[in-house]
Design goal:
By secondary structure, the chain is α+β, with helices and mostly antiparallel strands. It is 39% helix and 23% strand. The strands form 2 sheets. A 6-stranded antiparallel sheet has the order 3-2-1-6-5-4, with helices on both faces.
Length: 382
């Protein structure tokens, strides 16, 4: 995605001295106040570990945009703070649609964190032991799912692990990306990159795999070629055990139903076939469904199982029964926003928000805002 990963172009550095655009239309006192507020909440320091999902940062950016705060340096500082606070992130990046942030792309052509179109496309990453800034590239290519998947699905997505070379070293990467909405339209995408090679360090550092799984919102199981577990987190073990309805007999062995399926596949197919046609299995418990499937192998001699859980009925209900505008209102209700705040964010009146909520309550079969928020948050949790 970047100049580093494609071996093309040159690092642009982190300074803003070159071709600095005109000052923000917002006065310095206003921006200073915002920066102080964000700093108090840990957003501009190495203490913003609470922002550990791409969806969290997308909501921050959407809120700033809704309030008319579009200073690009402020957005960039927030991204850098998130990267510094989350040591297991390889990179934090965003790509905004042309002129979607502040309508001033022409003033930023070729400056740090921008390409020659002037679009706001910064990529903060760790490289060579340092935190650096460069511009995203190749985001407009059809195969760039890390950008197009969240815009197309209008939801946070996890990109399956893939390999790319950095300075002669092959890294095994997975990305989480979420759309940034403004007035009902997707204005851009923000994402986190994880170096999946850290999975091999998990056995020596308790909590490492849990932190990776928190960022990506999925479980991981590392197997050797014989189907024995090399490592999995405690939370993933409990999740698998609940669906298998059996206790985990050994930390080195999958519960029997899943173990038998994996062994049968490994014995019946060659390694090349498993990589080309990765199998998957689904297990249902009420309205919840667990999917376990093979991912690409990070190294020879092992396999990676990806574990995803979702609530089938609630997700399809939201998509099938709520209008696009009602879904937007519901999302903000789940975030605890008031009618007035939602009205400002979506650019509509508070009365219109109330009318949408009345319809949402009826469709969800709930009587009040609290019950609706619980249903919405439960959907997000899956």
């Amino acid at each position: 995605r970047s100049a580093i990963s494609s071996r093309a172009g040159k690092l642009m550095g982190v300074g803003f001295e070159v071709n600095r655009p005109a000052p923000s239309p917002f006065g310095r006192p206003c921006l200073t106040s915002v920066r102080n507020l964000l700093r108090k909440r840990g957003m501009l320091s190495d203490r913003c570990e609470a922002v550990n999902r791409a969806g969290h940062l997308a909501l921050v950016f959407s809120s700033l945009k809704a309030l008319g705060l579009t200073d690009r340096h402020l957005f960039s500082d927030i991204m850098r703070g998130v990267l510094l606070a989350n040591s297991r992130l390889l990179g934090v990046w965003t790509v905004w649609e042309p002129n979607a942030l502040d309508g001033r792309d022409r003033l930023y052509v070729g400056t740090p964190g921008h390409d020659m179109s002037g679009r706001f496309v910064p990529f903060w990453h760790r490289y060579g032991g340092q935190v650096r800034l460069e511009a995203n590239i190749d985001y407009d290519k059809p195969e760039s799912e890390w950008y197009f998947a969240p815009t197309r699905r209008r939801a946070e997505v996890v990109i399956d692990p893939y390999e790319y070379s950095v300075a002669g070293k092959t890294l095994f990467i997975s990305s989480s990306a979420a759309p940034i909405f403004h007035r009902g339209k997707c204005a851009g995408v923000v994402g986190f990159d994880i170096d999946m090679n850290w999975l091999f360090e998990a056995a020596d550092e308790p909590g490492l795999l849990e932190s990776i799984e928190t960022v990506l919102g999925r479980g991981h199981i590392l197997l050797n070629e014989n189907g024995e577990v090399r490592y999995w987190s405690e939370s993933t073990r409990r999740l698998i055990s609940r669906y298998m309805k059996s206790k985990v007999e050994s930390v080195r062995r999958l519960p029997r139903p899943l173990h038998d399926l994996v062994i049968e596949r490994l014995r019946g197919q060659s390694i090349a076939q498993n990589r080309k046609f990765p199998p998957r299995w689904s297990f249902v418990s009420g309205v919840r469904k667990l999917t376990v499937r093979f991912g690409r192998r990070p190294h020879a001699g092992c396999f990676l199982l990806l574990v995803d859980e979702e609530t089938r009925d609630e997700r399809s209900f939201f998509q099938d029964h709520l209008s696009p505008r009602e879904q937007q209102v519901a999302e903000w209700v789940g975030e605890g926003k008031s009618n007035e705040e939602i009205a400002i964010i979506l650019g509509i009146s508070a009365h219109t928000v109330k009318n949408h909520l009345d319809k949402i309550f009826r469709k969800l079969g709930v009587e009040n805002r609290c019950a609706a928020a619980v249903a919405i948050q439960r959907r997000h949790a899956n």
